[in-house]
Amino acid sequence: MQFEDLGRRALDTAAARGAVYADIRFESVRSERIEVRNAVVASLADSRTVGYGIRALVDGAWGFAASEDLSPAGIDATAARAVTIARASASIARRPVGEPPPVAYTGRFHTPLKRDPQRIPLGDRVALLLEAEKALHSTPSIAVGRAWLDLWNTEKYFFSSIGSAIEQRIVQTGSGIQALAVGEGDVQARTFPGDIGLYKSGGWEIVEEAQLVQNAARIGEEATALLTAPQCPSGTFDIILGGSQMSLQIHESCGHPAELDRVMGWEANFSGTSFLEIDQLGKLKYGSDIVSIVIDNTLPFGMATCGYDDEGTESGLSDIIRDGVLVGYEMSNDTAREIGRKSNACVRAQSWEFVPMIRMCNLNLLPGNVPFEHLFDDVRDGVYMESNRSWSIDDRRLNFQFGCQIAWEIKNGKPGRMLKNPTYGGMTQQFWNACDAIADERSWNAWGTPNCGKGEPMQSGRTTQATSPARFRNIAVGVGYRG
Amino acid sequence: MDKAEREAIARRVLAASNADQTEVIVSASNSALTRFTHGVSNQNVDAIDVNVSVRAIVDGRTGVAATNRTSDADLEELVRRAIDMAPFAPADPLQPALPQGGSVTAPEGAFDEATSRADAFARAQICDSILTEADETGYWCAGYASTARAGVTVANSSGALASFDGTDAQANVKMIAPDSSGFAEFYSTKIGAVNGRDVGRRAAHKARESGAPQSVEPGEWTVILEPPAFGELLLYLVGHFSAQSFDEGSSFCSDGLDRSYFADSVTIHDDYAHPLAPGMPFDFEAQPKERLALVEAGIVRNIVTDSYYAKKLNRANTGHALPAPNAWGPQALNVVVAPGTKSSEELISETTRGLLISRFWYIRTVDQKKTIVTGMTRDGTFLIEHGRITGGVRNLRFNQSIVEALGAVSFSKEQHRTGQYSYSLVVPTAKLERFTFTSTTEF
């Protein structure tokens, strides 16, 4: 392992400078992006970056330094910088905040692949997107067609001064299409799959699962039909949310508020705090009895699936909401210790130059027992919405308003005519307590998000919310167009 | 990495390429940020990186490759990757010649030596000043102090070569009282201008004054948006001035330029040289920038272009390219809203009943064409009655068309820099006569 010697050197340097604990994470990342826009390849890019970040703990305070300089002198200088930064942190601390991780791990993890995307000829990848994009133009109203593909291959090597030595190769793949229809004073977009495409850990099989070409003409037609569809009404309705919109709902109203650093005020000036306060653990009735949400960083195809997080903690499964009650958080070593628990391996960094922090990982709503088609059965007057278009929630994660790309009215148990500009809103706790049916595992899917923002400096995280569609009673609909 | 080193890399890349056209962007940065909360630094980071990106154009087909390795072998491999990819893209008949560049001069104040050398203890001092303010008030707080230096060199086979070095220093904080909070920020190119104690004091004042908040009814209100709030709102309008948005029909002004869309009081420029936010005098194609009027007295005059959209729309290249590959189209990154004639205090004193808003949160577009956005107030929302601030109010959600809101607006004579991300905004306080709130919160 070429990084082992450099890693040992960094840890020795940090210790010699006074660090009581240090770790180093090398990453070699290859990112490929292809995007076709109106028959033109707007992006055909291959980016590679190699570097490392060092964490050092001095007097109960952390410092982090990162560099692309892999020379021995560069390693020494970066380790020294991390220790100096830790000392600066200690100089203003009113109390100690950090301790070394309690457990050292040695291991290896590779994302299971059926077809390595790098082995698919570049010409074939471009051709697939050109074909899908062309098919989006199924009506003259489509002003812009887009088709895209993202491939990420990340190799990580983690070493710590308590003896951790971890090697990982994580492969994540995503693709999608979007049609933009322009009409008289109106613009309507449809995206597929979901609202950002299909993103999972895995290989070319994820692109094949997306079925871009097969669905492109329909997506173009739906975008066009939305231009003349009636406006979604305003009022109180029962609603059914499709899978991808459910993933967004879980992400914003459970995933973020259950991040323990946010609960403890670490994100207060930027991403905000949380209503899931620590004294509510084990008590707060977050949702109805059928709502159970778990962290599962071993989930097949999860975007956050890995063997170990970026603090070197082994991945596992833990409860966040059990039978509607708040029972856990997404945690790091330091935050878990503050509430007398152990980390559940929810720490990630965007890449080598970023400090690891609590990130939403694979946070999933367990499936219910109702076949999807039967969610509609006893809805007399409702709206079925799919594919997110707009999302906003207050900085304690209570008052939310989401909009979708497309909806269908539901009358007497049957989906009916298409509606445009659907929006809905409410307060998180009331909303989840209004959930009275979750579709069963046949419609449960892992919906990945490649670009979740958090932190300062801002980091982009990759996360999955696996879920089925679900039904909610008496929800405020049309809230975005009341003005 | 200094300018000479970046330019040497750029020359090596161009020499290694046999593509019809080649562009190279060399960027180097050292970014450091100290984050604090509850009396401790919870994150304290410093990252050094370099990035070399090559755009190779062969027979109108484009490939882009990037790396952070700079040995001769790495750069030669980089160029080969970009060239090897290009044939897989269909030829684009609109592919323009890369710009030839021109003379550029960095605006005064863009680079500050002290900021470029600032270390973790310099940031700690700013943070400690803010934490001391919190200690003395009994509030808790969260915020950060940051410093950065960044250099960019853009060169191409048409002969363009442009380099820029800039610095940045920032501090912001949210002070949290038992039932209220307050926010303050300060952004500059000079660390010496960042006064942590002043930032902390302003945030604590807001938290104190917005205590015991009362509920107000949603509906149509007159609002006065302080610069962080107005800047956040304006970000959702800036993209509409992109030639790409204009061309595809999704911009509010796609129906035509030289038409009045806003009140006469609205004048907006893209100005890289504004003294409050001096920035890069060229774009990522090395095209020189000039001060560009986007809106004059309510009339939309210009959209921003790059070489591609300049050719496609038969307009001048305004120098607003982003780094290739760019699916977002050209963007205005240095937006400046012209000031009015009254002070912020006068705008308040002339308001019979309204809301003073310090900051917005989580604004998102609800309806692109109509510029309807939703979002929340936070960290200091106040009731104005008969020209006076009479107390804090609980937070509200709005749904509002930005274009409609700017149909009846007046501005303060003071301007401030705001905008934390890749955008830089210089804006006054804005008084919007009609602004629609749709729901409330209990905090």
Structural features:
heterodimer; A: 483 residues; alpha+beta; PmbA/TldD fold; eight-stranded mixed beta sheet; five-stranded mixed beta barrel; 9 helices; 40% strand; globular; B: 443 residues; six-stranded antiparallel beta sheet; five-stranded mixed β-barrel; 10 helices; 18 strands
Offer a concise description of the structure.
The complex is a heterodimer of chains A (483) and B (443). Chain A is built from 9 helices and 23 strands. Chain A is α+β, with helices and mostly antiparallel strands.
List the helices and strands and how they pair.
The complex is a heterodimer of chains A (483) and B (443).
Chain A (H helix, E strand, L loop, with lengths): L1 H15 L4 E17 L2 E19 L2 E7 L4 H21 L13 E5 L11 H15 L5 E19 L4 E19 L2 E7 L5 E4 L2 H7 L1 H17 L6 E7 L1 H13 L4 H4 L29 E4 L20 E6 L2 E2 L6 H6 L8 E2 L8 E2 L4 E3 L15 E13 L5 E13 L2 E6 L3 E5 H6 L1 E4 L6 E10 L4 E9 L2 E8 L6
Chain B lengths: L2 H14 L4 E17 L2 E19 L2 E7 L4 H14 L27 H5 L2 H18 L2 E17 L4 E17 L2 E9 L7 H14 L9 E7 L1 H12 L4 H6 L10 E2 L7 E3 L21 E5 L2 E2 L6 H7 L20 E4 L6 H6 L3 E15 L4 E14 L2 E5 L3 E6 H4 L3 E10 L5 E17 L3
Parallel strand pairs in B: 7-13, 12-18
Antiparallel strand pairs in B: 1-2, 1-4, 2-3, 4-5, 5-6, 7-18, 8-11, 9-10, 9-12, 10-11, 13-14, 14-15, 14-16, 16-18, 17-18
